[in-house]
Amino acid sequence: MNILRVIKASVLSLGFIGVGLTSSLAAADVPQGMQNFNHYTFAVMWHPGVCATWTNAGAACKDLSPDAKINQEWTMHGLWASRPQSLIASGMNGPTWWHYGCYWYNPGHALPKDSCANPALNLPAALHQRLYAHMPMANICLDRHEYYKHVACFGETPEQFFPRELDLLDKLNASSFTAFIRAHRGQWVERNAILKAFAESFKVKNADALELRCETPGRHTHELEHQGDILTQAWITIHKDKVNDFPAPDSLEKGRKGNCAEKIHILN
Asked: What is the mean pLDDT of the chain?
């Protein structure tokens, strides 16, 4: 399986089908009303699980040592804005938004071929270093994809967007929830125990804001009807106007249920 198929296979209705804008939208070209949306999906990866189930992730999985920091905490996937109200009013449904995102505004809604066909982001050196330290999938151009699909049409520059996303990751990785996941590396854990750890860490009644994503070896899919037992991702729903307050309890919103089996293998 080539890397394009890997990236496409990683998509669910909230994933990243269609990769690569030919250029960033100029500020004057940002569509009107894009800031009127409800929530973000904050998506993070459990790197050992991703590397065990994603075929040919290549350079993204070059360091699988249990002692490596990226294998002891969540790594960055993305921060995805929900469907803007202006597009809801125009009749766009949810699956269409998650399929196209900002690519919708390409001529003919064109979806370029692959993530690495996107222009390089040319981040400041310090930000580039920080992002690549926490987003190993940037080695297969996930950083470019995330910006051009999920950010460009909202008018933010990479320099504005990625520090906020990385700050969320720092808060998550400093939590007792991440400590629980780290402490159970190499073990099979009850799904409900993971949900309980999330609720206790963030002082909420339940873990409705958390969507656990799991896969099985050789079956790289995120489709909800297919359960998996290897932990690969966590998707957390955060209210758009309270993203800076994360992980305060009132910053969290109910999301969707995940696809993990009752017992989950947290790879080391």
From this structure: 88
CA–CA distance, 142 with 19 (Å, rounded to integer): 9
pTM exceeds 0.85, yes or no: yes
Over residues 172-218, the pLDDT tens digits come to 999 999 999 999 999 999 999 999 999 999 999 999 999 999 998 76
Taking only the tens place, the pLDDT of each residue in 32-57 is: 889 899 999 999 999 999 999 987 68
191-202 vs 176-183: helix axis angle to the nearest 10?
Answer: 150
Contacts 24+ apart (CB under 8 A), 179-187: 181/46, 181/74, 181/231, 181/266, 182/72, 182/73, 184/266, 185/48, 185/66, 185/72, 185/266, 185/267, 185/268, 186/266, 186/267, 186/268, 187/265, 187/266
Torsion of CA 2, 105, 155, 42, to 10 degrees: -50
